[in-house]
Amino acid sequence: MQGENVPAPYELELTGKDGKPIMIEVSGRLISYKGRPADLATVRDIRERKKLEEQRLRLEKLAAIGEMATMVGHDLRNPLQSIANAAYYLNNELPHLSSSAPMPNKVMEMISLINESVNYADGIIRDLRDFSATRQPMLEKADINAIVKAAIRQLEVPENVGIVIELGRLPEIGVDIDMMKRVFMNLARNGIQAIENGGILKVSTKKAKRFVEINFGDTGTGISKENMEKLFTPFFTTKAKGMGMGLAVCKRFVDAHGGSIDVESKEGKGSTFTVRLHVLR
Asked: Which are the contacts of 98, defined by CB distance < 8 A and separation ≥ 6?
């Protein structure tokens, strides 16, 4: 009535005579009625619409669970089949081996295949668990450089990939050490996998204003513009193997610390992922 802007249609919850909630949608505007200014208010009962929305959300969740189950099943089928084949071979061969004879190369190869397949399957389950976890980071003062070095030590690096580490002087900051180690391992592993025909992965740290920066730069294939926007989306991957959860987990962990993760890339030139974490925590 005073000429002020009224909000767009908004929702309110009323209580019916029976004590049950009634969801309504309200909208209003100023009109002229019989030559005088008046309010025209529209009130809609939206209980049925809310029920339909809830049903739609349930169906979307079921569809997402179904999609995830399909992808998990597809991705786990390969390592499980490898384990089954290797176990079958060992079951047939081991009874015929002499206890004094050296272990045949084929047997050692099968044992190695089982270990690799188990680790691969475990990584899939771990990524799903980490992405769906709701726990808050358990912050403790830590040396980021030490976490970086520990993460790099645990990686398998091909002979055609060189690792360059340049660590600056950093203050101790509050982080969840396990979470950050997972982030650094995922980013370093992605960089190594992007280097198809040999190259360099450069890992560097520095203090920038109120942040600590951790950079992972590779000389790999780079990322196309159309894929840049999807990078941190769960289940998005351009690789033949893997579910595409690694970067989504990284972003979830970094966001939980109030930090940020960004990427710069040029196709054919490589990519650089940068993690920024607050110094004052």
From this structure: none
Q: Residue 239's pLDDT is what?
A: 62
In a shared domain, residues 97 and 161: no
Q: pLDDT tens digits, residue range 150-209?
A: 999 888 888 889 999 999 999 999 999 988 998 999 899 889 988 888 899 999 999 988
Dmax (CA) of the chain: 109
Contact 54, 48 (CB under 8 A): no
pLDDT in tens, 131-157: 666 668 889 999 999 999 999 988 888
Helix (H, G, I), strand (E, B) or coil at 218: strand
CB 39 within 8 A of CB 1: yes
Is pTM beyond 0.90? Reply is no
Q: Are 123 and 242 in contact (CB under 8 A)?
A: no
Q: Which two tokens stand for residue 224?
A: 């196309």
End-to-end CA distance of the chain: 49
Same-domain pairing of 89 and 148: no
CATH of residue 107: 1.10.287.130
